[in-house]
Amino acid sequence: MIKAILIFNNHGKPRLSKFYEHYSEDTEQQIIRETFHLVSKRDENVCNFLEGGMLIGGSDYRLIYRHYATLYFVFCVDSSESELGILDLIQVFVETLDKCFENVCELDLIFHVDKVHNILAEMVMGGMVLETNMNEIITQVDSQNKMEKSEQSP
Amino acid sequence: MLLRELIRTIRTARTQAEEREMIQKECAAIRSSFREEDNTYRCRNVAKLLYMHMLGYPAHFGQLECLKLIASQKFTDKRIGYLGAMLLLDERQDVHLLMTNCIKNDLNHSTQYVQGLALCTLGCMGSSEMCRDLAGEVEKLLKTSNSYLRKKAALCAVHVIRKVPELMEMFLPATKNLLSEKNHGVLHTSVVLLTEMCERSPDMLAHFRKLVPQLVRILKNLIMSGYSPEHDVSGISDPFLQVRILRLLRILGKSDDDSSEAMNDILAQVATNTETSKNVGNAILYETVLTIMDIKSESGLRVLAINILGRFLLNNDKNIRYVALTSLLKTVQTDHNAVQRHRSTIVDCLKDLDVSIKRRAMELSFALVNGNNIRGMMKELLYFLDSCDPEFKADCASGVFLAAEKYGTDRQTSLHITPAGSYVRDDSVPNLIQLITNSVEMHAYTVQRLYKALLDDISQQPLVQVASWCTGEYGDLLVSGQCEEEEPIQVTEDEVLDVLEGLLVSNLSTPVTRGYSLTAIMKLSTRFSSVNRIKKVVLIYGSSIDVELQQRAVEYNALFKKYDHMRPALLERMPIMEKTAANGPTEIVQTNGETEANPNPNIAIITIHASNATEADMTDFVFQAAVPKTFQLQLLSPSSNVVPALNQGTVTQVIRVLNPQKVSLSFTNCLTYTLKGSPVQDLAEVNNFPPQSWQ
């Protein structure tokens, strides 16, 4: 199960935070800070897996992260998820964002965080992987966006 | 203002305080807008609220508004409303129950996307009550032909089962033809659902075993089918689905011969045919290996699996090496010999630059140590101990001791322990001393190594303590140059005493260390011939400001003056000690086990040294002791009742025990202290006093 999905930039500012288990607001912010602290220390050429920090659960949980330019994408998962599989999932997520926003950059994530949530909702649900086919995800998201647009016009 | 205007405004803030001010202003505006029950702007306001929530500002006043949005007819409203519900609400708030009706209606909505939103929210944060109410709707949707909804319903069902396990039976009929779906999304989530059901109930597991042939067929199709553009990831057809199916097969095949047999072929096929040049191929291969190891596979297949792991260890990609080490750690218990074959590669990983890999390699190395390879392994592990990061040193040193205790003979044990000694934690000092005492033949070598370490560096307190203790005990061996294992060093009695006296005056020595060195000097009075020098030292410290040292010195002085005839007996070699079991989880008390001479032979004087290795001070520290009726106990006042953090100091306390019947000495102690604001209590029994103390 995926416990949390976090995106933050090189300075630790959160760009997306989705928790699939309940924590209080303070704890959530602490987790973000702690994760940033752990992940930012890592070199560029080490492996993408880290033992989880103290707050987010302890020995069964791992942080799987990828660093793209100015952003860190971090998935906190337990032992029921395949680590290498999650790495691929992050890749699919980023490629989907790239397709939806056309050469996505950090600014897109900053100004359209609700859209990013919508895309993520088509990929991961309740901490479990829902859909991994990029085209399928994009089709669904596009149809829903069309629905929204049609409600706004008149 | 619009969400993006808000974001733009916040980004112009130059300080945290400025940002906070802007947000507070906006929050106030939003709050008044909510009060006015403004439908048009509600959606926008909640979106802004969610953004501020992400930055860490409180947003709970928006919870009810999310509910109003969910109840709206517009899709736009519902979308933000549900998102808000997922981010801001949870089952601990009563508010969430109000959603139940809305979700129920939306689950039956004519638009699939609305149904999708409802399923998504229910699947993310539905409470047990909600799940109970709505399970029927979810079950209905699980049977629909709409693949978009079907896959969401499957995952929602998983959530329902997690919250209300009794409802699992209800979903059983719907699972009948889940696997005949063509749509990969549905297949994927169905496998997740089946996996969840099998993990939770052995009955379900038995029931679903009959699906193994079908799963094998699906997997085969995925591998054998040619290029399929919709599911292709780096040249492999839907690797995510393959990995999921492999995992389910693992659960179904475990401890079941027939199922395992049915999967053997396909596993061998995947293992040999998968391309390993990209991460996706390796992900599948890795999952295959784990499955092979877990089910009742034939031995040829198992060897193939371990060899794949061995190949992974040599891969350039660090991620692959990491997962290989992780899985080898899991299999080392069951397939010990097979893993041993890769020992040299694993040991090489100790030298990797990556912290995560080093940690895994260290754990795996300790698991692989046995009687045959202990010499070689110890060499590597000690080298690692020397060069690794500080965060590893404590664990590694403990591992070395454990391994030495379990597999080393006496000779080897000492050889290994002395270099590792520099990294011990304070609590290991007594253990280390005990190990040294018990390796009788190695005393000369040990004292020589430790003495040399003392000459090099006197800042590492645990090491200095052990070294001075050894020098006191075995100083005669040191001076007479009896070492066999290495070139014996030439050192005179005066030089040794110089070093020990140096410890007494050095700024680097803690009071505990000073105590150790004074006692060591005293012990040498029966082993060396320069007794006068020792007498002088002891005399000087009789007026030391440090109460602990003063007391020791005064008593040693008394030993010289009135009890000189007892001195050799009191200070003779320590006997072999039994393993102690007194160290409780808090690990803060060190009982030296030493006793000092005193006027009344029936009284044993025990000095307690308490040190604190945690990060915060321990305040209100109180030591209490209880003894059997035959004893009388007198506790003198402690030096302090604050034990400073990070071993920056110790609290000493003297206990006098009157033991007229000369019964074996033992007592129960109770420690109470306050750590970081909360009170802690710890009880322990101490009964390993050397016989000289009470006879």
TrEMBL record, chain A:
Q: Which residues form the AP complex mu/sigma subunit domain?
A: 1-147
Q: Which InterPro entries match?
A: AP_complex_ssu (IPR016635), AP_mu_sigma_su (IPR022775), APS3 (IPR027155), Clathrin_sm-chain_CS (IPR000804), Longin-like_dom_sf (IPR011012)
**Biological role stated in the UniProt entry:** Part of the AP-3 complex, an adaptor-related complex which is not clathrin-associated. The complex is associated with the Golgi region as well as more peripheral structures. It facilitates the budding of vesicles from the Golgi membrane and may be directly involved in trafficking to lysosomes. In concert with the BLOC-1 complex, AP-3 is required to target cargos into vesicles assembled at cell bodies for delivery into neurites and nerve terminals.
| Family according to the record | Belongs to the adaptor complexes small subunit family.
Keyword annotations from UniProtKB, A to Z = Cytoplasmic vesicle, Golgi apparatus, Membrane, Protein transport, Transport
Report the membrane topology from the UniProt record: Peripheral membrane protein
What do the Gene Ontology cellular component annotations say? Answer: AP-3 adaptor complex; cytoplasmic vesicle membrane; Golgi apparatus
Q: Which domain of life is it from?
A: Eukaryota
Question: What is the recorded name of this protein?
Answer: AP complex subunit sigma
- Give the gene symbol: ap3s1
Chief localization class?
Answer: membrane
The record's subcellular location field reads: Cytoplasmic vesicle membrane; Golgi apparatus
Its GO biological process terms?
Golgi to vacuole transport; intracellular protein transport
UniProtKB/TrEMBL annotation, chain B:
Q: Where in the cell is it found?
A: Cytoplasmic vesicle membrane; Endomembrane system; Golgi apparatus
GO cellular component, alphabetical, reads: AP-1 adaptor complex
Checking InterPro entries in the record gives: Adaptor_Complx_Large_Subunit, AP1_complex_gsu, ARM-like, ARM-type_fold, Clathrin/coatomer_adapt-like_N, Clathrin_a/b/g-adaptin_app_Ig, Clathrin_app_Ig-like_sf, GAE_dom
Q: Which Pfam families match?
A: Adaptin_N, Alpha_adaptinC2
Q: What residues does the GAE domain cover?
A: 569-690
Output the superkingdom of the source species.
Answer: Eukaryota
BP GO annotations: intracellular protein transport; vesicle-mediated transport
**Nucleus recorded as keyword:** no
What are the alphabetically sorted keywords of the record?
Answer: Cytoplasmic vesicle, Golgi apparatus, Membrane, Protein transport, Transport
> Taking the first listed entry, what is the main subcellular location of this protein, grouped into a coarse class?
membrane
- Annotated membrane topology: Peripheral membrane protein
What does the sequence similarity comment in the record state about its family?
A: Belongs to the adaptor complexes large subunit family.
Protein name per Swiss-Prot or TrEMBL? AP-1 complex subunit gamma
Originating organism? Cyclopterus lumpus
Give the gene name: ap1g1
